């Protein structure tokens, strides 16, 4: 048996491994069955390896094809293989019903090789009559690899490094995220992708997976400036608190955006204390809930449209029937669709585990909300600056109220505010975040959730201490974006 491998030599010349003398630039050729155009001999086995330069694929068609027809091409046949896969077994004559004639079919490899094998058996007889079959004539050509348009990156773009921009072999692109609202996370192989000889865009490590654009938290374009003094609050300017959500579940509430499709809020905005409607299912509540984001004017934010809720998660410690204990007053709303981040819609960061700095007595924070002001629901986002207060002061103030059924002040709460000044959060602010500016990282961090108080602007307000619920939050939001 003799192997025909002239094409291997030719390919070697082309790729320049042997580079003396003029290099043939023929990127095509033909393959003939033994003795073609005369009939092929019996008992012949021949095979051909077509190898074209890297970055090209092989495209092959038959110009002429005439082999002894048989059921499943059992006797005489041509087999084609590429990329460790069979591209079929062929025999027969144009128009014959037995066999498997290739017709005008184009055979295309994914890599730069194709293998053809020919086999004839001991006879070409049909009912004792010898029939001569002429075999085949095949043409092939090398076609430059095309990777197609690169995959689109959500919240980012790709751009071509090479000019002219094209999607062919060795073309290079880079991915970028829409900064500063998203940051890029690559798979370890960088943000540059090259069109490979396999026809796929791959990074430096040869990986196909494209990067991701993850939300940047706690970095508003337009933060509140300086020390400024909801009841007695200031009107927020656009983009001061881009994480602020307006919720309509049981009346007006607030929330804070985490990542790009989660709203952190208070459980009692979903199951108010002592409400008769608390047997409504979470699914029904999710369907009825309205969530608004992206503006500090109530009319405008509502006009911008509702963000439908997919699922609601309420902390298991929250008891809607105990009006004296707001422990576990925390909930998460998962939006059906992620929001596109920008100057007026941006998530807030969560605190670091086990760092209690932000809860120290006197540490200043901000609470924003669309809540009640002078007995009316506010038309604007308002904010107040309030200091966190030590547990001892909070507790003794509560004790001084001498109520018959004292409110529980659990470890999962903190209080903030002033005793004498009329600055506090109120109804409608429930669920909004208590935020602090972390001077070290320059990021805004949510440390609390507006939970409960005794009247409005009368002494301290009480907040869910987010630090105590980080594991619960992260257990539900299983994203690496917090
Ligand atoms: C097949 O035919 C070719 C061309 O006639 C010949 O060179 C080759 O030796 C044959 N191979 C076998 C196995 O008979
Ligand atoms: C594609 O771009 C590469 C490099 O920029 C260039 O060499 C090649 O000729 C281009 N191919 C086509 C088909 O334009
Ligand atoms: C919920 O409770 C109210 C009264 O407590 C009752 O009338 C209503 O049928 C209940 N709804 C459901 C869905 O169980
Ligand atoms: C806690 O956070 C504050 C503010 O970022 C920082 O100054 C302090 O070093 C942190 N403490 C620890 C123990 O990480």
Gist of the model:
By secondary structure, the chain is mainly beta. It is built from 5 helices and 31 strands. The protein has 3 domains: 8-144, Spermadhesin, CUB domain (Jelly Rolls); 156-215, Complement Module, domain 1 (Ribbon); 234-477, Thrombin, subunit H (Beta Barrel).
Structure overview:
The protein is mainly beta and 482 residues long. It folds into 3 domains: 8-144, Jelly Rolls, CATH 2.60.120.290; 156-215, Ribbon (Complement Module, domain 1); 234-477, Thrombin, subunit H (Beta Barrel), CATH 2.40.10. Helix content is 8%, strand content 33%. It has 5 helices and 31 strands. It has helices spanning 6-15, 282-288, 298-303, 391-400, 470-476, and strands at residues 28-32, 45-51, 56-66, 77-82, 85-90, 107-108, 113-119, 125-126, 129-130, 135-144, 156-160, 172-177, 182-185, 192-195, 201-202, 212-215, 234-235, 244-248, 252-258, 262-265, 290-293, 309-314, 331-335, 364-369, 372-373, 376-377, 382-389, 413-416, 433-438, 443-453, 461-465. The strands form 8 sheets. Strands 24-27-28-31-30-29 form a 6-stranded antiparallel β-barrel. It has a 6-stranded antiparallel beta sheet with strand order 21-18-19-20-23-22. Strand 19 (252-258) and strand 20 form a beta hairpin. It is elongated, with a radius of gyration of 36 Å. The two termini are 66 Å apart. Residues 1-25 have low confidence and may be disordered. Bound molecules: 2-acetamido-2-deoxy-beta-D-glucopyranose (NAG) (4 copies). One 2-acetamido-2-deoxy-beta-D-glucopyranose (NAG) binds next to loops.
């Amino acid at each position: 048996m003799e192997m025909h491998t002239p094409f291997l030599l030719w390919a070697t010349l082309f790729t320049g491994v042997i580079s003396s003398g003029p290099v043939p630039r023929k990127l095509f050729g033909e393959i003939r069955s033994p003795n073609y155009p005369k009939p092929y001999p019996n008992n012949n086995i021949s095979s051909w390896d077509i190898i074209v330069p890297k970055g090209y694929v092989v495209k092959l068609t038959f110009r002429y094809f005439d082999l002894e027809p048989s059921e499943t091409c059992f006797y005489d046949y041509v087999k084609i293989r590429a990329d460790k896969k069979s591209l079929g077994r062929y025999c027969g004559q144009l128009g014959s019903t037995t066999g498997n004639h290739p017709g005008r079919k184009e055979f295309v490899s994914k890599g730069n090789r194709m293998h053809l094998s020919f086999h004839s058996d001991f006879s070409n007889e049909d009912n004792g009559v010898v029939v001569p079959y002429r075999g085949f004539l095949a043409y092939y050509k090398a076609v430059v690899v095309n990777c197609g348009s690169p995959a689109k990156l959500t919240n980012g773009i790709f751009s071509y490094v090479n000019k002219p921009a094209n999607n062919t072999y060795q073309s290079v692109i880079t991915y970028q995220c829409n900064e500063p609202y998203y940051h890029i996370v690559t798979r370890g192989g960088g943000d540059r992708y090259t069109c490979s000889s396999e026809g796929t865009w791959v990074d430096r490590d040869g990986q196909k997976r494209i990067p991701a654009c993850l939300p940047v938290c706690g970095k508003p374009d337009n933060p509140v400036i300086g020390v400024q003094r909801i009841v007695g609050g200031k009107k927020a300017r656009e983009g001061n608190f881009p994480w602020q959500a307006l919720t309509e579940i049981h009346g007006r509430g607030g929330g804070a955006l985490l990542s790009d499709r989660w709203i952190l809020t208070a459980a009692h905005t979903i199951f108010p204390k002592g409400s008769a409607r608390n047997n409504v299912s979470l699914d029904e509540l999710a369907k009825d809930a309205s969530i608004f984001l992206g503006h500090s004017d109530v009319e405008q934010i509502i006009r911008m449209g509702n963000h439908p809720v997919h699922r609601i998660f309420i902390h298991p410690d929250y008891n809607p029937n105990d009006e004296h204990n707001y422990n576990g007053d925390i909930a998460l709303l998962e939006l059906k669709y992620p929001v596109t981040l920008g100057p007026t819609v941006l998530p807030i960061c969560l605190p670091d585990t086990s760092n209690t700095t932000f809860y120290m007595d006197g540490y200043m924070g901000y609470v924003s909300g669309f809540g009640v002001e002078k007995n009316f629901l506010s038309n604007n986002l308002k904010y107040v600056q309030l200091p966190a207060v030590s547990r001892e002061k909070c507790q003794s103030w509560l004790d001084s109220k001498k109520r018959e059924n004292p409110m529980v002040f659990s470890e999962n709460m903190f209080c903030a505010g002033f005793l004498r000044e009329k600055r506090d959060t109120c109804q409608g602010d429930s669920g909004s975040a208590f935020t602090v500016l972390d001077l070290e990282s320059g990021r805004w961090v949510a440390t609390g959730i507006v939970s409960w108080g005794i009247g409005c602007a009368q002494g301290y307000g009480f907040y869910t201490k987010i630090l105590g619920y980080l594991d619960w939050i992260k257990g539900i939001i299983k994203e690496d974006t917090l």
